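Table S5 (text form). Sequence records supplied for joint modeling of the two-component complex.
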Amino acid sequence: MTTSTTQERPARNGVDVPTLFATLNVVKAQPEIAKFQFRASNQWISGVHSRSTIRGFYGAGQEDTSRDQDFSYDADHPAVLVGGNNAPTPAEFLLHALAACLTAGIANIASARGITLHEVTSTVEGDIDLLGILGLSDGTVRNGYEGIRVHFTVKGDAPEEQLKELVQQSQRRSAVYDVVTNGVPVSIDVNAA
Amino acid sequence: MTTSTTQERPARNGVDVPTLFATLNVVKAQPEIAKFQFRASNQWISGVHSRSTIRGFYGAGQEDTSRDQDFSYDADHPAVLVGGNNAPTPAEFLLHALAACLTAGIANIASARGITLHEVTSTVEGDIDLLGILGLSDGTVRNGYEGIRVHFTVKGDAPEEQLKELVQQSQRRSAVYDVVTNGVPVSIDVNAA
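The corresponding structure-token record, covering 386 residues in total, follows.
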């Protein structure tokens, strides 16, 4: 499907397409290596300010050791929500996760289909009525977003319809889109002292 | 409910409790100011590497201007997923969002209840079978996490049962927990050229 040639670097759009297809073939032969576990650890700092550390994960049959340092991200609330404004809200990080997942899919799918991309940008908006989380609703207002809208601009060397199909296929295969639209069971346990 | 006294700083756990309650009273009187819109914009860089910018949001009846600079976060895939390992995966950012939202709630609720916290830490694990996003499943494997587990450690000046209740109440009032467990409608449109 790819039109990459060996005299050029194997990447299209920065995606190593031969390795991408090779990876697919390895997983087809050994489907058990597709089981991954991702993790984050979080530490409360003060107020509603906290910091997450992301590094290790399990996948491809082993504990990953490829990351040579921790990734670290703060979260906080703005002043209007009685926070310190040190970082975005957790709900905004969820929008980042959604946009980034769909965009990664677009890049992989375009590369597999031999389409060179020039630009992929998106804006994500989430509407939330804080009567829910503030406990001021009569039960009709949910805690989370009532709706999320994603606006993509995709430019590349393909007809408009093929570029739009990249987004549609990414939507069909996005991990974060699936979780955010369909939900996932979350269990919580507490060690308190 | 708070035991804060005016001769001390009004914060408990770094939460400005009088302002928190004042905010609740303002919203009770004007519930329409509880309507917020959060946003992120994302730009593809190369491969599956992208960058989101977070800054502006609408809330409390106006466009927020309190943030004096953009927050910026990259996302990428690790090498085993044919990425550049420049940043965590989008699916890991979702775990950060979940942990940080629950932790913010714990801090606010503890402060409102007059409980001084000493430590709130958590680890979040999400299990995902990549046969879904790789398109190698017969339809039985979903794209996103199959389950997420959150383990909290909470230490504070209150009996164990009261500390555990902080987590339970945060779970009942968390925006991200709601979205991640129940899902939310997401609409996507594309401008392609």
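Note: Strands of chain A lie at 11-12, 15-16, 35-46, 49-54, 58-59, 62-63, 71-75, 117-129, 147-156, 186-192.
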